[in-house]
Design a protein that fits this description.
heterodimer, A: 111 residues, mainly beta, six-stranded mixed sheet, 59% strand, B: 113 residues, seven-stranded mixed sheet, four-stranded antiparallel sheet, 0% helix
Chain lengths: 111, 113
């Protein structure tokens, strides 16, 4: 089966940088995705890594090391609106293209 | 911008009743999914659907559950004989054939009393 571990909560101030780590165990790994979810809202896609290295999308970056079964999401220049839960999710090599989500990291941004 | 829509936004039902949750995926997408999220917990995969058949399902998706694409636009999840533990937010998602992003709908909050 699959399992993903990520910290449960992180608190930071506006303008700071936050790194959310994710370690995973899975068979048939295909790629690692990150989703943002505000309270009461739907998960929203942030980024995807299939190969080792860093992917940058504006203030958010995501990193993957396949050999270490590890990835992280980097949130830069934190804004109040970034307060949300962030989930890593593994996409595996199955016919169904399913995502297996981690438990989520709640990020609280303070003024 | 195209989006996934779901109805109803909130469904309250009595234990043992049947419910149908409805979704309209993005029109040119070919993969459809149902996930659920129990309050305060992680998002859990239920089922994926491609080419008019189930392509993968989780252990949660037992005989109580079924999915259907009754026409060219709707995608439904039927839960027979609901149980208290079925109370959760149910998300529909869709994705293109080739692509890494799954687009989630706003969810249906199911409350079983």
């Amino acid at each position: 089966g699959q399992s993903l571990e990520q910290p449960s909560e992180v608190t930071a101030v506006e303008g700071a940088i936050v790194q959310i780590n994710c370690t995973y165990q899975t068979s048939g790994f295909y790629g690692l995705s990150w989703y943002q979810q505000h309270d009461g809202g739907a998960p929203t896609f942030l980024s995807y890594n299939a190969l080792d290295g860093l992917e940058e999308t504006g203030r958010f970056s995501s990193f993957l090391s396949r050999s270490d079964s590890y990835g992280y999401l980097l949130l830069q220049e934190l804004q109040m609106k970034d307060s949300a839960s962030y989930f890593c999710a593994v996409r595996d090599r199955t016919a169904g293209n399913k995502l297996t989500f981690g438990g989520g990291t709640r990020v609280l941004v303070k003024p | 911008e195209p989006e996934v829509t779901q109805t109803p936004s909130h469904q309250v039902t009595q234990m043992g009743q049947e419910v149908i949750l409805r979704c309209v995926p993005i029109s040119n997408h070919l993969y459809f999914y149902w996930y659920r999220q129990i309050l305060g917990q992680k998002v859990e995969f239920l089922v994926s659907f491609y080419n008019n058949e189930i392509s993968e399902k989780s252990e949660i998706f037992d005989d109580q559950f079924s999915v259907e694409r009754p026409d060219g636009s709707n995608f439904t999840l039927k839960i027979r004989s609901t149980k208290l533990e079925d109370s959760a937010m149910y998300f529909c998602a869709s994705s293109p054939l080739l692509g890494n992003e799954q687009f989630f709908g706003p969810g249906t909050r199911l409350t079983v009393l």
